Amino acid sequence: MDFQEKTAVACDLCGGEDQSLLFVKEGFPHVRCLRCGLVFVSPRLGGHGDLQRLSGTGGMGEDRLTSSQLKRLRKEVELLRPFRQLNRILEIGAGKGWFLLEAHRQGWETWAVEINVQALDRLNQMDLTGVIVQRAEQFESPPGSVDVVRIWDVIEHLESPRQAVNNMFRALRPGGLLRLSTTNFASLSRMVNGPEWVYLNGADHIFLFEPATVGRLLEDAGFSGIRIRTRSFNLRRKLYHPERELPARFPLLRPFRKIIDEAIRFTKFGHQMIVTAIRPENAADAR
Description:
By secondary structure, this protein is an alpha/beta fold. It has a single domain (48-278), classed as Vaccinia Virus protein VP39 (Rossmann fold, 3-Layer(aba) Sandwich). It is 24% helix and 27% strand. It has eight helices and 15 strands. The protein has helices at residues 48-54, 67-78, 98-105, 117-123, 161-171, 188-193, 211-221, 257-264, and strands at residues 6-7, 19-25, 28-33, 39-41, 44-45, 88-92, 109-113, 130-132, 146-152, 172-183, 207-208, 224-231, 237-240, 243-246, 272-278. A seven-stranded mixed sheet has the order 8-7-6-9-10-15-12, sandwiched between helices. The chain has a four-stranded antiparallel sheet with strand order 2-3-4-11, with no helix packed on it. β2 (19-25) and β3 form a beta hairpin. α2 (67-78) packs across α3 (98-105). The longest helix is centred in the first third of the chain and has 12 residues, at 67-78. It is globular.
């Protein structure tokens, strides 16, 4: 497989082939589907899934968590208690496994779906119930077998978010919960920073969701009760090939960053989307 060869793709959300070019960053065209509005990279590198397996971001993240980070994870797991019927949590792209480790401490059966070789080395040393070594678009689990599926800052890396979400829907029991996080292309951070925004990396982040498109993705799979909130504002700009931090485009905003950060969580313009959705009772499998 020639990882440098680029392949044009249709929209994963609606199948549309008509696109408008938004910008090119470091040789990667970022386009918007004219039918549904999804933003994605096309053409993209060939063998993207194999790149994620061998390198990608699965090995990134902290080797040790701060007390405040541990507190946030503990609180997140505690909030899942109302969904605890089968006592099983599944995380897609578990990375270093910090969330599943906390869930295990609170007595959950913990399952991971992961392909990144660095992440697998770590996960296989942890006391998890099981690790499924398959891509999110291909993994199989017994239908209705888990209470909660979590996918955190992963869906933007996948070759087919639509297929992955369909698989998550099938894995959840009726009434089960999906928790999803991804960057927000419609964020104030992206608008201020332009194409050099730190989260625009065409070799890695090949889908850029907004509240409208992530909502449609989940609705099409059959989810209901979809709630989307956003948080955070930053001024980071970066190039990746080779890696180089760039100065802030509007440095005068720096003194006001914390104020904006606090206010933006009441809007849909934060740079991180946190999404929850429910598999309805008596729902058929994802379409």
